[in-house]
Each structure stands twice: as structure tokens, then as C-alpha cells.
Design brief:
The protein is built from 31 helices and 9 strands. The chain is an alpha/beta fold and 722 residues long. Among the domains are: 3-168, P-loop containing nucleotide triphosphate hydrolases (Rossmann fold); 507-718, no CATH class. Strands 2-3-4-1-5-6-7 form a 7-stranded mixed beta sheet, with helices on both faces. Strand 3 and strand 4 (55-60) form a beta hairpin. The longest helix has 42 residues, at 290-331.
């Protein structure tokens, strides 16, 4: 380990569910910075750590069980841990699962990396009757061991002192070489030249650690950055070992766990059995039927909170946005600048922050479920169903969250460990019928199904239920197709640790939820704002001077008339709405609507519906207000009687009605399947780290929506429902 790297960067590593991130937040005080690792989309969370003699950067690594990486996240952690520039590593170990947790620090100590073991959750270990001799454990392991309770901020000063001491030490006690089988020792010596060519700066311990790591890891396709010479030497070695009837993987793992068994036996009392209360709770929560019922109740409560709890905050944001628009319109002179500020910038910012309450609440709920240990039980129960369509068990929560809003749902895929599984989930979940689609459904139902019934049920209720049922079926079907075609691979293996039940820290829950919200507002919000302004420009320009002059003349006539002031104001408002509609038809967006009308007619739409679809790209519910402008109605909502009447009266060029029950169903199917939401596009771009996946998402959903609407409309006409 070179002196040059010391004092610069300290890494914090550990198993999933060991309290690693909680300890990171406790040490950093919540002042973390979040970015991406170079060239990849995995979050890199870091913060300044103040030690007695210096100040260092503390980096929170993705959770991992060992240096054998099977995912891009784990590979990043391995790369960082084995870099010669690493100053020290804080390895967090759950005191209640010592034998498994010590495997990772054992590997690190073998490599020669300065390690400080943070023995977390010692209070929980004491409640289980565990007695740990930390001094003896440190002597056996060859690294300092500091007992901490991250949730209560206990032991943090001692941990900072231990880190500082490790950084200042020129060397220290190291674990004697484990007694690996002689054949394995020959394998390590055989690999040494190839490893030395790859890592010429490596110490003897690091050289040995790299060799063992290569033997265990280089069979994984996900590993990158290892030169061909090392790969070739490892592949030849593994082939020779297997031909001789040996399994080098088992030899390494067995030797390490045999040693760990001895360490745990000397330094720790035998762990007590699982408390009976936990066993009884698990019997209910992991039951194939009871577990599902409990989860349904839990999710119902969460969604009720998301809809009802977030609604006042969303309403307040929308009210504030409207107020700011009114104030800007009153201050700025009428013209392009006013329109840009009011309809572009303020509306764009509103489109970003309106998601904030739901995102924050959803991540608070998910954080609570995960940190309490319940989410692992849910994933276990649901995994069988999810596996049948190629999804991970943890995909269930993001999919259900899609009923509320796709934006926080896509962000919720971060609970899924493997990148491939996250991508499959985030590419399928926008098909879940989110709350923004509901106003469109209500408008269509109120327009074409008013007063109609199907047996004992209203036609509108049947139509709404059908949309939501169809969304679930299509989502699962899309996930299965994507898994088998676009992102092929084996059905994800689901190896799950059942963490103990714990009461989460409210402070840590808030820090993590706020951090994720901030990422959305900064990264995805920038894209949403830019796209909102672009969409405003498409629907606003060019302006027709002839249309403006014509309506100005009518306004002058009304102003000079003898009508009462209230009547004048009403007529002027109507003229404003009519002018806005005609100007929109003249805009680039309106012209595009006319241009695509031949493609829309086969699915039952005209250019006016087409312009509404273009406007809905900002947000699905904008479809309604855009139609209000197109038809010259002004302010509208899904309950607007004038808009419903305008839709009923609208006619194609041949005189046939635009909106019929059949075209209404076609429209609902289109909105169900089309990706009419730039916020979803933006957040998929942010979470995937590439424009390739949001472009694919938009393309396949648009094509699917068109083909499905075409089948509905044309099939319905063939059956005589036109």
C-alpha cells in the first residue's frame, strides 16, 4: 500500500442488510454527495469524514458478500477495494451474523488492504445472548474491531479513531496465510506472472488476493477490465483443475469458512436460536396465502397514503404554480416572453416538482419496509409469480407503485440488485395504468358511455375495470417478451437473506428518501424542464398575424358595443379561447397533427385528437387541457360538459362522428399503452444512464399502442360496432 494514496479515500463496504449505509450516514452526518461512477450508471455516494488528524473522503460502496462479483455494482466495489490507491476500508459486519459477515473482511485482510471492522448491531447481538470478545477477534483477524450501533450513533468516536490509526500506521498485524490445499497453492503460484503483468505495483499479499479472486470470479460474463493474459491463464488453470477432478472454488471457500469457524468459536459464544416471536411472524408473512394477503393490506395502505396523503401537497404545488403563472402574466407584457415564462418555464418547473410528494413518500415507505426486514419476506412470497415472467421478486413493489406514478416506480427499481433485472422491470412498468391516465379515462367514459349499462353494471365502470386489468396483463406479458428477446438471460436466481426484524431509524429513512428526491429534481428535472419548453414552443409557434388581426378586430367591436361589462368580459374570454385554438392549429404541433391525421384515421382519431396526443407528451392529463384549447373552450377538466359536448359534436371530413364508443375504447387503449409522459422518459434516462433505453421504451410502447388501437377499432368495425 503506497503512502501516496493514504488520507485521500476511505471505502465503507459490507453485506446487504448489515447497516452499512446507516453507518455511512451516521459518520457523514447526512452531508453526502451523489454522482455516478465513471462510465457507468451506478450511484457513487461520498462524503467528507473528519478524523482526529485529517480529513478524508468516505465512499459508500454497493453491498456485497465477497470479492466475487456477479453484477456491475459488485464489480465496481471489487475494483475500488483492490485498487492500490485505496487508503483504508471500513468493513461493516452484522454482529448477529458473524460467521457470514467475516468472510469479506477476511478476504480484504488477506489482500493487505488496511481494514477496520465495524461490528454493527451489537445491541441486537446482546439481546440474542451473544457475547463477543472484540479484542480477541481483532487479534485473530489481524484488523481492529470496533463495536458500534449505527442507528443510535454509538461507538462512532472510537471508529473514527481506529480509522485514523489505520491510516497513520506504516504496517500492522496481518493474518497468517490460511492453510489452503497444496494444489491450490500451486494454482496461485502459476497465476502469479499473469497477475504481476496486470498489476505490477501489487504487494505479495495483493498478488495473492488477486490470484484467488481471479480463480473465483473470472467465469462470470459480467466482469470487465481484466486483461486477456490473466483471463487466459485463469481459464487454463480452471480447465486443468476440473480435468484432474478438483474444484478450486470449493477449495478456497471451504478453507476460508473452516478458518472462520475456528475464529467464531474462540471469540464468540454460540448464537442463540431465532426468537420464537420472529419464527411465528415469519410463518405468517412467508405463507403462500397469508403472506400475500398481508402484503395486499400493506400495499393498500401505502397507496391510500400516496393518493390521499400526497394529494394536499400536490394540490398546493399546483396552486402555487398557477399563482406564479398569474403573477408573471400580470407583470410581464403580453407576447412571446410572457408565454415563455408562464407556459414554458413556470409550467416546466411545476411539471418537475409536482412529483416530489409522491416520490418522497414512496421512498419513505419502501425504506421502512426494507430496513425493517419485511420487504425481503415479500420478495420471497412473490418471487414464484415474478419468475414465471422473468422478473425478480423485488420487482413487485415497483410494479404496484406504477399504479400511482411511473416516475417514483422507476426509481424504486433500485431495490433490485442486478442491472439486467432492473432494466426489464423499468421497461415494463410504465404499462401499469398510472393515476395520470385516469382523467383521460373519465373524459372518454363521460363522453361516450354516459347512461349506458352492461347488465347490472354501468358501461363506464366496465370500461375502467377493463383498462386496469388489461394494464396488468400487458405489463407482465411485456416483461416476459423483453426478458426473452431484448434482454435475454436466465431467469434471475433468487438467493435471499432473511434479515432480522428491526425498527428503522427515522433519521436515516429521511436522509435516504431526500437524497433520492434530490437526484430526481436535479437530473431528471432538468430534462423535464427542457422538454416542457420545447413542447410549448412546438404548440405556440409560428404565430399567425392574420388570425391575431382578425380576433383583435372582433375584440374592438365588442369593446365599442353597448353590452354590459359582464357580457363583454364573457365574450372576450370566449374570443381568447377561440384564438388560442386557431393559433394552436397553425403551430408546428398543429401542423404535425394535420400531417399525421391519415395515420390516425385507421384507429378512429382526427387531427384534433392528434394534437391532444402531442400535448399529452408533457403529461398525460395535459391531453384534456390541450383539447380544450383545440376546441376553443378554454379552461377544462375531465368533468367539463362543454368539452364532452365538443367531442360528441366533432366530425371527420366525411361527416362521421370522431368520438364513438368504439373510438373511445380505442383512445383509452392507446393512452393505456403509449408512453405519453416525458417525465417517465427522463427518469428512465437517469436510472439507465443511456438514451438507448428510453428511446426503446418510447418506440415499443408507441408501436404497441398504435397496433392495439388499430386492432380494437378495425376489429370493432368488422364486428359491426362502428
Amino acid at each position: 500500500m503506497s503512502k501516496a494514496g493514504r488520507g485521500l479515500q476511505v471505502l465503507i463496504a459490507g453485506n446487504p442488510n448489515c447497516g452499512k449505509s446507516t453507518l455511512f450516514n451516521a459518520l457523514s452526518g447526512g452531508g453526502a454527495h451523489v454522482g455516478n461512477y465513471p462510465g457507468v450508471t451506478v450511484d457513487r455516494t461520498s462524503a467528507t469524514l473528519r478524523l482526529p488528524s485529517r480529513q478524508v473522503e468516505l465512499v459508500d460502496l454497493p453491498g456485497m458478500y465477497s470479492l466475487t462479483a456477479t453484477s456491475p455494482e459488485e464489480q465496481l466495489a471489487v475494483n475500488a477495494l483492490l485498487e492500490p490507491q485505496t487508503a483504508a476500508v471500513v468493513c461493516v459486519v452484522d454482529a448477529t451474523t458473524m460467521q457470514r459477515g467475516l468472510y469479506l473482511p477476511l478476504q480484504l485482510v488477506e489482500s493487505g488492504v488496511p481494514v477496520v471492522v465495524a461490528l454493527n448491531m451489537t445491541d441486537a447481538a446482546e439481546k440474542l445472548g451473544l457475547h463477543i470478545d472484540t479484542a480477541l477477534l481483532a487479534k485473530l483477524l489481524g484488523a481492529p474491531v470496533v463495536p458500534v450501533v449505527a442507528t443510535k450513533r454509538r461507538g462512532l468516536d472510537a471508529l473514527r479513531n481506529a480509522i485514523d490509526t489505520a491510516l497513520n500506521a506504516d504496517g500492522g498485524q496481518r493474518l497468517p496465510t490460511l492453510d489452503y490445499p497444496p494444489a491450490l497453492e500451486e494454482d496461485v503460484a502459476r497465476l502469479a506472472p499473469a497477475i504481476r503483468a496486470w498489476r505490477p505495483e501489487a504487494t505479495a499479499g495483493e498478488l495473492r488476493a488477486y490470484a484467488l479472486w481471479c480463480i473465483l470470479s473470472l467465469g462470470e460474463d459480467s466482469l470487465v477490465g481484466v486483461p486477456g493474459l490473466a483471463r487466459k491463464a485463469t481459464a487454463e488453470l480452471r480447465a486443468d483443475a476440473l480435468a484432474a477432478g478438483r474444484n478450486p472454488d470449493l477449495e478456497i471457500i471451504a478453507a476460508r469458512y473452516e478458518w472462520l469457524d475456528g475464529v467464531v468459536a474462540q471469540a464468540c459464544s454460540a448464537p442463540d436460536p431465532k426468537p420464537p416471536i420472529s419464527e411465528r411472524i415469519d410463518r405468517l408473512l412467508t405463507h403462500p396465502v397469508g403472506g400475500v394477503l398481508v402484503f395486499v393490506v400493506v400495499m393498500f395502505g401505502i397507496f391510500e397514503a400516496l393518493f390521499a396523503g400526497a394529494e394536499p401537497f400536490i394540490g398546493a404545488i399546483e396552486t402555487l404554480t398557477g399563482f406564479l403563472q398569474e403573477q408573471a402574466a400580470a407583470i410581464l407584457p403580453a407576447g412571446v416572453l410572457q408565454d415563455l415564462v408562464v407556459q414554458g418555464i413556470i409550467a416546466g418547473v411545476g411539471n418537475v416538482i409536482v412529483f416530489a410528494p409522491q416520490i418522497l413518500m414512496l421512498f419513505l415507505f419502501i425504506g421502512f419496509l426494507e430496513d425493517s426486514g419485511y420487504l425481503a419476506r415479500v420478495a420471497f412470497v412473490i418471487d414464484r409469480v415474478m419468475r414465471s415472467v422473468g422478473l425478480h421478486g423485488r420487482a413487485f413493489v415497483p410494479l404496484l407503485s406504477g399504479f400511482a406514478c411511473a416516475v417514483p416506480a422507476v426509481m424504486a427499481t433500485r431495490t433490485i440488485e442486478r442491472r439486467r433485472d432492473r432494466l426489464v422491470t423499468m421497461l415494463a412498468l410504465p404499462l401499469m395504468s398510472c393515476s395520470a391516465r385516469l382523467p383521460v379515462y373519465i373524459l372518454v367514459v363521460g363522453t361516450v358511455f354516459a347512461g349506458q349499462s352492461l347488465g347490472w353494471f354501468s358501461a363506464g365502470a366496465v370500461a375502467l375495470f377493463s383498462m386496469y386489468a388489461l394494464s396488468v396483463l400487458v405489463t407482465l406479458g411485456a416483461a416476459a417478451v423483453i426478458r426473452r428477446t431484448v434482454l435475454p438471460g436466465p431467469t434471475p436466481a433468487f438467493v435471499l437473506e432473511m434479515p432480522p426484524y428491526r425498527w428503522p431509524s427515522a433519521r436515516i429513512l429521511w436522509i435516504n428518501a431526500w437524497r433520492r428526491l434530490r437526484i430526481f429534481l436535479v437530473d431528471a428535472g432538468t430534462i423535464i424542464l427542457a422538454m416542457t419548453i420545447l413542447l410549448w414552443a412546438l404548440l405556440s409557434f409560428p404565430k399567425s398575424q392574420e388570425i391575431s388581426a382578425s380576433f383583435d378586430a372582433e375584440r374592438a367591436t365588442i369593446a365599442e358595443s353597448a353590452l354590459a361589462d359582464d357580457e363583454k368580459a364573457a365574450r372576450l374570454r370566449a374570443l381568447d379561447a377561440q384564438e388560442a385554438g386557431e393559433q394552436l392549429a397553425h403551430s408546428l404541433g398543429g401542423r404535425f397533427g394535420h400531417a399525421i391525421e391519415p395515420a390516425l384515421r385507421p384507429i378512429g382519431f382526427d387531427w384534433q385528437i392528434g394534437v391532444g396526443i402531442i400535448g399529452a407528451f408533457a403529461a398525460r392529463e395535459v391531453f384534456i387541457s390541450t383539447l380544450g384549447v383545440v376546441f376553443g373552450i378554454g379552461e377544462t377538466d375531465e368533468e367539463s360538459r362543454p368539452l364532452r359536448e365538443a367531442l360528441r359534436d366533432a366530425r371527420h371530413a366525411d361527416g362521421t362522428p370522431v368520438m364513438t364508443p368504439l373510438s373511445g375504447v380505442s383512445l383509452m387503449v392507446f393512452f393505456l399503452l403509449a408512453c405519453q409522459c416525458m417525465s417517465t422518459i427522463a427518469v428512465v434516462r437517469r436510472e439507465s444512464g443511456s438514451w438507448k433505453w428510453p428511446v426503446f421504451l418510447f418506440t415499443y410502447m408507441t408501436v404497441l399502442a398504435y397496433l392495439a388501437s388499430l386492432a380494437v377499432y378495425q376489429g370493432g368495425q368488422l364486428l359491426g360496432f362502428g
